[in-house]
Amino acid sequence: MIKFKFWGVRGSVPTGSPDTAKFGGNTTCLEVRCENELLVFDSGTGIRYLGNELMKSLPVKGKIFYSHVHWDHIQGLPFFTPLYVPGNEFQIYGGSSMPVTIEETLKKQMTAPCFPVPMDIMGANIGFFDVAPGDIVKGDNYQVTLASQNHPNNSFAYRVDCNNQSIVFATDTEHYEDKLDEDLVELSQGADYLIYDSQYTYDEYHGFNGQMSRKSWGHSTAEEGLKIVKAAGVKNFVLFHHDPTHNDEFICKLEREAKEVFPNSIAAYEGLEIEVGKPIPDSLFT
Ligand SMILES: [Zn+2]
Ligand SMILES: [Zn+2]
C-alpha cells in the first residue's frame, strides 16, 4: 500500500504571504509510505514540518531521494531535526550532471559563512549514495526507479512501486515542444499517480500576452503533464511545484482547467494526503 503526503508544494522560493497560504508557501517535500517504510522526496523548506512529525516516534529510519539539488529542493535539510538525533538512520540518494557527489553538495550547503552548523555534527547514521538514470533502489516492500529529466544541471524523475501500486514524482522538468519525453512516458506507464511540474501556464511558458517567455527555464505546464498522463495511461494527476507568483485563487483556476481535460486531477497543497487505491481526494476549494 502506498500513501503519500505533501509537506511543501511551492517551486523556486518559499512564499510567506497570506494570498498563498492555503496551498502553502514551503518548497518541495513529499513523504511517501510503502507499507510502513519511509521515503522522502526532496528536502525543500517543507521537510522541517515533516521532521517535527517524525520526532514524535523515534527512532526514525528512512531514505531521502533528491530530484536534484537546486536550492528549493535542499534548503530545508539543515532544519530537519531527525538528522541530529543519534539512533536515527537515513540513506540519501541523488546526483546531478556536475562532477560532485550528493554528499559533497549537501555538506557544502552547510558551510560557513553561509551556514554556521556543519553537517558532520548531525548525530544520525547517514549514508550517501550517488545514483543515475536507470538505477533501481529496493526496499523490503518497494522499488524506486529513476529516469533523467530535461532541467538545467539535470534532474531525476522517480517511480515508486509497491505491491501493484505506483506513483511517479516528476518535478522540475521541461517538456519538449516537438515530442513527448519518452523516458517519462515509459516511467509513468500505468501509474496510479503522476505528480508533475505544473509551474507555468501556457501563456507564461510561451511569453504570450506581453509576458516574458519561460522557455529553457526548466519547467512545464499542467497541459503538458496531461499529455504524459494520456500517453502512459496514468490514473490520476497532481499539479505540483507551484510558481511563487501564483496565489491561491490562481492555482484554483489552473486546477479547474486541468479537471476539464482530466477530471482525476488535483493541485497539491500542504497537508494533502493521498492513499493509492482510494478515490482521489476533493480539491482544496470545493
Ligand atoms: Zn524547483
Ligand atoms: Zn530546479
Commentary on this structure:
- With 286 residues, the chain is of the alpha/beta class.
- The protein has one domain: Metallo-beta-lactamase, Chain A (4-Layer Sandwich), CATH 3.60.15.10.
- Helices cover 20% and strands 26% of the residues.
- The protein contains 7 helices and 14 strands.
- The chain has helices at residues 47-54, 71-74, 102-109, 182-187, 202-206, 222-232, 248-261, and strands at residues 2-8, 29-34, 37-41, 61-65, 89-94, 125-130, 136-138, 143-149, 155-162, 165-170, 193-197, 236-240, 265-267, 273-275.
- Strands 6-5-4-3-2-1-14 form a 7-stranded mixed β-sheet. Strands 7-8-9-10-11-12-13 form a 7-stranded mixed β-sheet.
- A hairpin with a 5-residue loop joins β8 (143-149) and β9 (155-162).
- The mean pLDDT is 97.
- One zinc ion (ZN) is lined by residues 11-12, 70, 72-73, 172, 241.
- One zinc ion is lined by residues 68, 70, 151, 172, 218.
What characteristics describe this protein?
286 residues; Metallo-beta-lactamase, Chain A; seven-stranded mixed sheet; 7 helices
Classify the fold: give the CATH topology: Metallo-beta-lactamase, Chain A
CATH superfamily: Ribonuclease Z/Hydroxyacylglutathione hydrolase-like
Task: State the helix count.
Answer: 7
The shape is globular
**Which structural class is indicated by helix and strand composition?**
alpha/beta
Number of domains: 1
Task: Catalogue the unreliable spans.
Answer: none
CATH class: Alpha Beta
Over the alpha carbons, how many angstroms does the gyration radius reach? 18 Å
